[in-house]
Amino acid sequence: MRIVCPFCGERELGEFSYLGDAKPVRPAAGAPEDDVFDYVYLRDNIAGAMSEHWYHAGGCRAWLKITRNTLTHEISSVEPAAGAGAAEVGA
Amino acid sequence: MVSHAQTHRLESGGLIDRSAPLNFRFDGKTFAGFQGDTLASALIANGVKLVGRSFKYHRPRGILTSGSEEPNALVELRTGARREPNTKATTAELYDGLEAASQNCWPSLRHDLMAVNQLFSPIFVAGFYYKTFMWPAKFWEAIYEPAIRRAAGLGRAAGVADPDHYDKAWAHCDVLIAGSGPAGLAAALAAGRSGARVILCEEDFALGGRLLADGGMIDGMPAAEWTSRTLAELATLPDVRIMNRTTLFGVYDGGTYGAIERVNDHLPSPPEHQVRQRLWRIVAKRCVVAAGAIERPIVFAGNDTPGVMMASAMRTYVARYAATPAKRIALFTNNEDGWRTVETALGAGLQIAAVVDARLDVSAAHRALAAKAGFPVLNGSVAGVEGGKDGVRKISISLTGGARAEVEADGLAVSGGWNPAVGLTSYHRGRPKWQDDISAFVPDGAPPGMVAAGAANGAFGLGACLSQGFAAGAAAAQSPGHNGSAGTPPVADDETFSLTRLWHVAGKGKAFVDYQHDVTASDIELAQREGFESVEHLKRYTTLGMATDQGKTSNVAGLAILAAVSGKSIPETGTTIYRPPYVPVAIGAFAGHHRDEDFHATRLTPSHHWAAEQGAVFVDTGLWKRAQWYPRAGEKDWLESVTREVKAVRSGVGFCDVSTLGKIDVHGPDAGAFLDRVYINTFSNLAVGKARYGLMLREDGMVYDDGTTSRLAEDHYFLTTTTAKAGPVMQHLEFCRQVLFPQLDVQLTSVSDQWAQFSIAGPKTRDLLREIVDPAEDLLNEAFPFMGAREVALRGGIKARLFRISFSGEMAFEISVPARYGDALVRNLMLAGKQFGVTPYGTEALGVMRIEKGHVAGPELNGTTTAADLGHGKMMSTKKDFIGCVMAGREALAAADRQVVVGIKPTDKKRRLRSGAHVIPKGEIPGSASSQGYVTSVCFSPTLDQWIGLALVERGRERIGEIVHAHDPLRGEDYDVELCNPVFYDPDGGRQRG
Ligand SMILES: [Zn+2]
């Protein structure tokens, strides 16, 4: 598998580490425990296009939001996490 | 050493180099061959027909094919540490001095006592293993398994370490081509001329594919001439790389391909400093699979007799190697292509005994050829073979209409048609589709970017191979944007295609489908009767296609027979799933250089070389090598050394390299706010010049990591992690920064490798530091109190950081200098500390002192403990949001009966403790129900002169003073321990603040 990092270009899978579902959003401070529980534990297990968090550990250390088809491994989009731009060297 | 004469070598012809004679040994006998031979062709040239015994029945077997699909002719190649079992004689290149041995036979190939297995063949039927497993276990273990293991099986592994090196490499191209036959070469021409970067992989050492044996006319010239002209043109193209001896074995996501290059397999051993094989990962925008087709056998009784050979292989040995598998050849074919073997054999002056053709419509030209050469053309099927280990003697034929005939021959060529090599195109769970007009499965789609051409795509004619290959190569080059002219495509005529379906000839005797796993037609019929109708079930039940050849010659015939007995069509029956690798790949090649001490990277601490000079004993912690203790002359064991080190620290001064801790610089105006969110305690209110112990949770409320973090400037914190979690914490913090809290203005930099850090501990720490640190720096309590942290100048001007933190409970500082000064610092500490008796200590003494002081570490930070479990519940801020704060408040995580950290000491002061023992209340029967926790860390405490430990025990902190039972079923130990305060040493902390 190959991933086109928005900062580093096309790179091999081995440079990246996988976290998982990028859909859950961390509840704001003071959110009910149930919301936090869902955020921590509940994940969809999608057969198809799925938004995922990946980390370019062997490259620019950017956290990426990647849309990957879990059936074919086809990657349809790669975008940096909101705060990843700051990792861009010299940008 | 007299070589046997090459009795079966033609006087002339072939692609062998007769000026380069080679000697080789097979089963101890010496033979001769030529450069350009394979082991198989050289054996054939020497009249050797019997090369192995079959897997289950130990039947004599010969050479069936001339390529990597070979199921029979497997040998142990080379000797000693380089002995390699299950090597295909058909692909092993001959070299001078080659040694090979037949396998799977005892005591010898010709007199194999295990052939008695044939007599027991009724019990070796399909599903044999499954049926046998149902017998009483004792019977199986004592009798059957050992007997079967001895009787069945393939070659022997070398049993010692592989002396050779293997390499791994990457390559990138626009167009990757599998195969150098007419389709592959045409594809390379078109793509290369267009300007694309091309890599062509060919598993053979010679280029040309079927052209090497079958010839033909291309562009009005003989195929050999066209091939050499084409190769010459490709050599002039700047970006065309041709890799022979290289098999493309797998297709992975994103256009990544696996290939194995047999760099030096054709030599007795690799030249010095060269690798044996190289594993390639090739990234290609497009791939043209021109891997050709595999001729398929027809299943009939005795079809495994040595001397029965695929028709295409027979003519390959004659035409390419000038080696004659037989002198009087019979052909059994159901298609036009088989007749080429007759033409080749006649051209070489060999005799044709008869042609048995299942088709009614044999062409007039062929009939005329038969009449001229004087052999009969019989319409019907071969029903049996008479012969044995010395080869074929007689063939019995059932003629269409019912009559029988017999023909004497010493070789039988068989052609059941051709199966396109659909492996590569099917590796992404693709299912090939049945193409009725050629009676074969062809690719139905392929992984993205891949296309099949030529015989691999079901186009068997030479003209079609060239035109499909050329078109595929040109199209593949266009997609990556190479618009050069592909020029004129090569042209040739297509041969006539004519085939009548014939899979299996009914008859008496064993008719083999899968030669390598000894699966017969009746096994398949039995499996179907027993209900294994799905091909996937059939495969597992009969083991059809599960040998090292993956059923390349057998799968289609097997499912055709299954289809016939189950009354379904072949497409309805379908194929099993295709999986890489296409050919066996040595594990050594996947490992490459990552073996032995290079299995993983090794990280050395800044003081490593100095420690090694001191004779330190090192321990692997993750990738690091850390000094575990420093033995001194006369010390009888590790405990004596460690005890001395601890005492030296507690009474004087010692130091330890702690550079392995993860170190992260946190910069920015929001650095404090950021740390408040990742730690349970507050850091934004930490004064500049101070350090604080911090605890991180996972979002689920469990403790993740701990360490001290110092504030070096208003907007600069220096954070440390445990050694084990250095990488994961960095990743976690980047996630928090980039994904969870992008609004915070903060930067993270890993500086683990930038700083050499030493802990200096003991009452004489300041005395030692004064010798190192610039005299202007005030190290007294007032100016540098406990938990102080700031930059200082060392004597000589180097800047260092000093942190007044203590893991040992002693007066201690941690000093860090740029990593390049680490070695100099440790040597200076030794010099300057000599007067104070300075003692270097290792991780063992470090561990002893942390247990004495009751500090938690890895065994307690085990992923299931909360801050409160570790005794740090009060650190958890209630005034802020932080990672894990909500989940940590869950009822079960705050329950009163949780297992919490507590100290333990044995009631018998002399007793040794061991971690892992269960803690059981006194008077209860030990068991999982009565277990209330376990011992996590133990050590011999030189300070208390007894063994002490830490344990996780239910309500442990409320039970200080209680005597409980330690139960260690693993070591068979039972003893009493007292639960106590985990801080064994200096509980009020006066020493570290002193
Ligand atoms: Zn990157």
From TrEMBL, chain A:
<protein>
    <submittedName>
        <fullName>Sarcosine oxidase subunit delta</fullName>
    </submittedName>
</protein>
<dbReference type="InterPro" id="IPR038561">
    <property type="entry name" value="SoxD_sf"/>
</dbReference>
<dbReference type="GO" id="GO:0008115">
    <property type="term" value="F:sarcosine oxidase activity"/>
</dbReference>
<dbReference type="Pfam" id="PF04267">
    <property type="entry name" value="SoxD"/>
</dbReference>
<dbReference type="GO" id="GO:0046653">
    <property type="term" value="P:tetrahydrofolate metabolic process"/>
</dbReference>
<dbReference type="InterPro" id="IPR006279">
    <property type="entry name" value="SoxD"/>
</dbReference>
UniProtKB/TrEMBL annotation, chain B:
<keyword id="KW-0560">Oxidoreductase</keyword>
<comment type="similarity">
    <text>Belongs to the GcvT family.</text>
</comment>
<dbReference type="GO" id="GO:0008115">
    <property type="term" value="F:sarcosine oxidase activity"/>
</dbReference>
<dbReference type="Pfam" id="PF12831">
    <property type="entry name" value="FAD_oxidored"/>
</dbReference>
<dbReference type="InterPro" id="IPR006277">
    <property type="entry name" value="Sarcosine_oxidase_asu"/>
</dbReference>
<dbReference type="InterPro" id="IPR041854">
    <property type="entry name" value="BFD-like_2Fe2S-bd_dom_sf"/>
</dbReference>
<dbReference type="InterPro" id="IPR036188">
    <property type="entry name" value="FAD/NAD-bd_sf"/>
</dbReference>
<dbReference type="Pfam" id="PF17806">
    <property type="entry name" value="SO_alpha_A3"/>
</dbReference>
<dbReference type="InterPro" id="IPR041117">
    <property type="entry name" value="SoxA_A3"/>
</dbReference>
<dbReference type="InterPro" id="IPR029043">
    <property type="entry name" value="GcvT/YgfZ_C"/>
</dbReference>
<feature type="domain" description="SoxA A3">
    <location>
        <begin position="508"/>
        <end position="592"/>
    </location>
</feature>
<dbReference type="InterPro" id="IPR042204">
    <property type="entry name" value="2Fe-2S-bd_N"/>
</dbReference>
<dbReference type="GO" id="GO:0046653">
    <property type="term" value="P:tetrahydrofolate metabolic process"/>
</dbReference>
<dbReference type="InterPro" id="IPR027266">
    <property type="entry name" value="TrmE/GcvT-like"/>
</dbReference>
<dbReference type="InterPro" id="IPR006222">
    <property type="entry name" value="GCVT_N"/>
</dbReference>
<dbReference type="InterPro" id="IPR028896">
    <property type="entry name" value="GcvT/YgfZ/DmdA"/>
</dbReference>
<dbReference type="Pfam" id="PF08669">
    <property type="entry name" value="GCV_T_C"/>
</dbReference>
<feature type="domain" description="GCVT N-terminal">
    <location>
        <begin position="608"/>
        <end position="880"/>
    </location>
</feature>
<feature type="domain" description="Aminomethyltransferase C-terminal">
    <location>
        <begin position="901"/>
        <end position="986"/>
    </location>
</feature>
<protein>
    <submittedName>
        <fullName>Sarcosine oxidase subunit alpha</fullName>
    </submittedName>
</protein>
<dbReference type="Pfam" id="PF01571">
    <property type="entry name" value="GCV_T"/>
</dbReference>
<dbReference type="Pfam" id="PF13510">
    <property type="entry name" value="Fer2_4"/>
</dbReference>
